Recover the amino acids of this structure.
């Protein structure tokens, strides 16, 4: 059974690149366009093995989403990776404090994405 | 990547427009923090996306803009009229940067410089104490800049934070990752695990001591602990250069030191011991480097595939088909010569060239998986849009198919899936009412059947209402109300041009592309499409395709000494007829075994000189869902045809789909029977 990854980003092109890479690597991919949209997957029925989220998004940002996942009884133990840029050092700490497992620095190539995945998912 | 790039351009254009809008609103209401956040967010998206998709200039440029608005957001700077006007001209500039043609013009380049300088000036105005060029921050992920090393040995102490599970980290993955970058000796320390009464399964009590021998360098090790370095205890000590873990003296010493579960290695002590060993190790490394070379060699030998440009394969295919043709001619000549030695050579030659042909054919096949990946996404997105719950199941996606076929299949399959989701599968409420599971199912199956590939798309929706189809067909004048139709015939009506049963046109399946186009597209790649739909239980569409487009099983037929080839797959039956009977028949229809067949005398239709012989070959071919006769002088036999495209001048020829060169060097044209009939019938009947 392939593992399922939820990818949340308001940028369609990033979503596409990430889901394309992940699907090609054999994962199931769920897609959310922002934090609020992603919340619908946290229904206790959808199986999610990993969350990858952007931090800046309209409606509900990444930090809020990470906190919501950590407070959700069904999903609080799943690994969470967030997308960030090299210069956002404070943000990195804020996201980690909110409960994120790790991060992926933009820009990234598929190999880098998969190697980050490898740290948190088997 | 190009597709993603185009997508980004589209998206960035929207973002820039939104940015402009927000800036204009901000001009009126410059205290609105929502607006400022929105502006910052857009800039951030542009920066991240720009860097991802190769627009470095955009990324660098927006980096400066982002910094200013970050300050404003954090109330460290104020919005001034001047700042707004710089930002707005920056927005115009971003539009130019997005256009590849404009971005490299001297005006845009100089404009980029001027605006960037003005932005940096603004930044420095806002806060002098902070330096902004954070981009120069050292990067963690250096691309293996470290020089090639023979191997180093490290000691790693890794004690995860007790709360490490809470943020989804599994420390074992990290230990495992270390294992993947070199040779390891791992000691798990478990003595801190408490009695069961006090045991809290959400806490991590274990820690690890690891000896790692690796060629990847310190960076790679630090990289492993990247996510946990802030809250876990990690100490990495270099024991020394050399592959100590290969040295039995070193490992046995470590085993000796490991007397109890709670013992703790003294890195300094081990380092000293390692140094005393290093003279010996040096000698070993020489042996090892030979071994490494062997390892490297075998590693390279197991590479399972290489990528080759598809043009090269096309070219190869073309050359092989030339070879096969030449070989056939050679065989003919050798047989004529009666020279036994030559004939034997020719037979060998034939054997080898056949193998070569099969080999090149298999090369141009790709698994259908590649095409299916994007359907998963389509199903998901559409089911959300239509508020349906649909699971997409795929089977046999490893089935291989010619790459041109796979490409040509994408659109038709998308169309079928859209239909299933839009018209086929009911909404969740409807399904509940019908007693079906709430989740609809679409099954995609691919498999081989003989020399063909079958692709099935099956859904468990409401199926096709043949009563509705019949009613509509009468309305539209395809049939009259007295016509009796079997279920299958009724279903096949949906493939007729100009027929569509959708009550309302939706954005998804109502694009004016009907099932007839679908059928035509499949026919273009020499495929067939079949549909079955048990009422209320779902719809199943089967597409039957040839394995490849470059070889065709054909029948070689003759009119007036001119050879033609008819694809074997389109032939239904062959009977001999007397030409006089055919000529006497009324309205070009003849009854054979009680069934009436319309027919065409191709010698006349193609305006060939001369007359048919007395006995002619009446070849009955499949056309839409009827059978039609085509009349030829005689049949030469079955023939495996290597397809050759016609030249540029003949590309748009209606009834000829290609050509092939026969063994004796003659060119035979391949008749597309569907189009032959289309042409001569003027589509008078269906």
């Amino acid at each position: 059974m392939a593992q399922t990854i939820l990818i949340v980003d308001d940028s369609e092109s990033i979503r596409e690149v990430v889901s394309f890479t992940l699907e090609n690597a054999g994962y199931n991919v769920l897609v959310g366009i922002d934090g609020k949209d992603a919340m619908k997957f946290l229904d206790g029925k959808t199986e999610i093995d990993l969350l990858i989220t952007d931090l800046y998004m309209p409606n509900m940002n990444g930090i809020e989403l990470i906190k919501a996942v950590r407070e959700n009884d069904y999903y609080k133990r799943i690994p969470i990776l967030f997308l960030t840029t090299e210069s956002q050092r404070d943000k990195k700490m804020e996201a980690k404090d909110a409960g994120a497992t790790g991060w992926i620095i933009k820009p990234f190539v598929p190999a880098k994405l998969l190697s980050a995945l490898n740290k948190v998912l088997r | 990547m190009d597709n993603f790039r185009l997508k980004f351009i589209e998206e960035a254009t929207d973002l820039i427009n939104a940015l402009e809008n927000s800036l204009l609103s901000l001009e009126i209401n410059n205290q609105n923090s929502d607006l400022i956040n929105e502006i910052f967010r857009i800039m951030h998206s542009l920066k991240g996306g720009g860097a991802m998709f190769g627009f470095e200039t955009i990324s660098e440029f927006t980096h400066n803009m982002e910094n200013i608005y970050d300050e404003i957001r954090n109330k460290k700077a104020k919005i001034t009229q001047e700042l707004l006007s710089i930002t707005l001209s920056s927005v115009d500039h971003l539009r130019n940067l997005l256009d590849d043609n404009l971005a490299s013009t001297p005006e845009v380049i100089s404009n980029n410089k001027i605006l960037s300088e003005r932005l940096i000036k603004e930044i420095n105005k806002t806060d002098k104490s902070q330096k902004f060029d954070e981009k120069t921050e050292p990067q963690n992920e250096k691309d293996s800049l470290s020089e090639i090393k023979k191997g180093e040995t490290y000691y790693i102490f890794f004690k995860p934070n007790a709360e490490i599970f809470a943020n989804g980290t599994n420390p074992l993955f990290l230990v495992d990752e270390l294992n993947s970058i070199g040779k390891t000796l791992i000691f798990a320390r478990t003595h801190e695990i408490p009695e069961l009464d006090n045991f809290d399964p959400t806490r991590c009590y274990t820690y690890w001591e690891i000896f790692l021998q690796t060629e990847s360098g310190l960076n790679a090790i630090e990289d492993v602990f990247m996510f946990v370095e802030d809250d876990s205890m990690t100490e990495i000590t270099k024991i020394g250069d050399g592959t100590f873990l290969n040295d039995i003296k070193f490992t046995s010493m470590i085993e000796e030191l490991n007397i109890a579960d709670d013992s703790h290695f003294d890195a300094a002590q081990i380092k000293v011991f390692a140094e005393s060993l290093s003279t010996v190790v040096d000698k070993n490394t020489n042996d090892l480097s030979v071994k490494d070379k062997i390892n490297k060699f075998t590693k390279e030998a197991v590479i399972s595939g290489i990528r080759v440009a598809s043009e090269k394969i096309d070219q190869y295919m073309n050359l092989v088909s030339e070879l096969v043709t030449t070989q056939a001619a050679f065989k003919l000549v050798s047989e004529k010569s009666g020279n036994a030695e030559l004939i034997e050579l020719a037979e060998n030659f034939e054997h080898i060239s056949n193998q070569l042909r099969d080999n090149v054919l298999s090369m141009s096949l790709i698994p259908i998986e590649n095409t299916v990946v994007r359907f998963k996404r389509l199903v998901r997105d559409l089911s959300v849009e239509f508020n349906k719950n649909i699971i997409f199941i795929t089977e046999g996606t490893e089935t291989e198919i010619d790459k041109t076929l796979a490409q040509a299949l994408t659109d038709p399959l998308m169309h079928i899936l859209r239909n299933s989701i839009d018209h086929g599968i009911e909404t969740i409420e409807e399904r509940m009412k019908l007693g079906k599971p709430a989740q609809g199912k679409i099954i995609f199956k691919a498999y081989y059947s003989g020399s063909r590939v079958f692709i099935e798309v099956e859904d468990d929706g409401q199926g096709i209402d043949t009563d509705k189809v019949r009613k509509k067909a009468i309305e539209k004048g395809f049939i009259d109300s007295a016509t009796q139709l079997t279920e299958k015939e009724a279903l096949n009506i949906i493939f007729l041009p100009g027929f569509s049963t959708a009550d309302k046109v939706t954005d998804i399946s109502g694009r004016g592309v009907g099932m007839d186009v679908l059928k035509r597209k499949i026919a273009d790649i020499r495929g067939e499409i079949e549909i079955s739909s048990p009422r209320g239980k779902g719809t199943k569409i089967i597409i039957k395709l040839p394995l490849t487009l470059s070889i065709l099983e054909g029948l070689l037929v003759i009119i007036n000494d001119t050879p033609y080839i008819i694809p074997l797959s389109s032939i239904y039956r062959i009977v001999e007829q007397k030409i006089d009977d055919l000529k006497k028949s009324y309205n070009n229809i003849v009854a054979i075994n009680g069934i009436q067949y319309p027919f065409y005398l191709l010698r006349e239709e193609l305006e060939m000189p001369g007359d048919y012989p007395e006995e002619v070959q009446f070849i009955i071919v499949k056309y839409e869902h009827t059978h039609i006769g085509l009349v030829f002088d005689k049949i030469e036999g079955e023939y495996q045809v290597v397809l050759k495209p016609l030249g540029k001048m003949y590309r748009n020829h209606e009834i000829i789909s290609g050509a092939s060169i026969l063994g004796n060097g003659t060119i035979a044209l391949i008749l597309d029977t569907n189009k032959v009939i289309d042409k001569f019938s003027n589509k008078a009947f269906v």
